[in-house]
Amino acid sequence: MYAAQHAGPAHVAAVAALVLLYILPALVAWIGRKYPEQPKVGDTAPHAVMSAVSGLSRVCQVVLLLAFGSTCAAQMSSSDVELSLLKITISVYNHAEVSPEALATAERRAEQIFRRAGIAAVWAHCRVSEAEAPRDQMCGEPLSPVHLALRILPQSMSANFHFSDTTFGAAMLSPEGTGYYSYVFQDRVEQLARDSHVNRSEILGHVAAHEIGHLLLGSNAHSQMGIMCANWYGPQLRSAATGTLLFTPQESQLIRAKLLSWTRQEEALRSSANSSLK
Predict the structure, then answer these.
(1) Are strands 169-172 and 181-185 parallel, antiparallel or unpaired?
(2) 138-144: long-range contacts at Cβ-Cβ below 8 A with a sequence spacing of 24 or more?
(3) DSSP alpha helix (H) spans, the chain
(4) 118-147, pLDDT tens digit by residue?
(5) What is the pLDDT of residues 242-270, one digit of tens each?
């Protein structure tokens, strides 16, 4: 019990492999000797046992592969953590006046989703009227592929988009698939939270990550699974509640590739500009 509680994924997989490699064949051989299979009309108990054991053997072979696969996955996860995170800045405009506590929780959830994709999200909180005091300095910086805007809208503003009641946000993309502005419809987020019994900050964080994902991925970014799934039903909402609604590995790779490409282009332009000044 102590070893099982404290062993890492690699040790657990190794133990599982030993059990499957040595104990299972012995069990199959013992049953084969005790119940020698003979041709019969109909299915007798020994034949059913042997069929079951044969099926169990095949299942265990699959489990064995999965055990080793989980070890590799654990090792890949560890190496993924070592990757340098690419940074994006998200300027947040809280028109819906979501409470600071709820907004902070939503931002943490979205930040975790992006981090699992290899992206470090930095939040800049921007004023929504001239009457407010100036806030984060980044709010005055121009938008770009690594500096995006997220506006959280109340019902009075989201109604201007004329989307269906089941649409929880939007991302503005050009015909070329680029854009810097995303929106979340807070009244619909709260309605979904009530209907699904999922915390509204969790819903807000996931919808924000989804819409920003459109800006990062470009056109036609909806997928059949994960955070970019177009329609969220029970499975997606349960994943959201447990923090497992994420970008797929392919989406994560594409986002990182796009951000790296843009960053390198910017570095080349700055280098060229500096050289021309000399």
Answers:
(1) antiparallel
(2) 138/89, 138/91, 139/91, 141/89, 143/91, 143/180, 143/181, 144/180, 144/262
(3) 2-6, 9-18, 24-34, 45-82, 100-116, 155-158, 186-196, 200-217, 234-242, 249-277
(4) 999 999 999 998 888 778 889 999 999 999
(5) 999 999 999 999 999 999 999 888 888 77
